[in-house]
Amino acid sequence: MRKILRGMMDTMNAVNPPRMTALKELHEAETGPFSILIGTILSARTKDETTTKIVKVLFSKYKNPKELANAKIKDVEKVIKSIGFYHVKSKRIIEVAKIIDKKYKGKVPDDMDTLVQLPGVGRKTANCVLVYAYEKPAIPVDIHVHRISNRLGLVDTKNPEETEQELMKKIQKKYWLEINDTFVMYGQNICKPISPMCNICKIKKNCKYYKLKIKKLHKDI
Question: pTM to 2 decimals?
Answer without folding.
Answer: 0.92
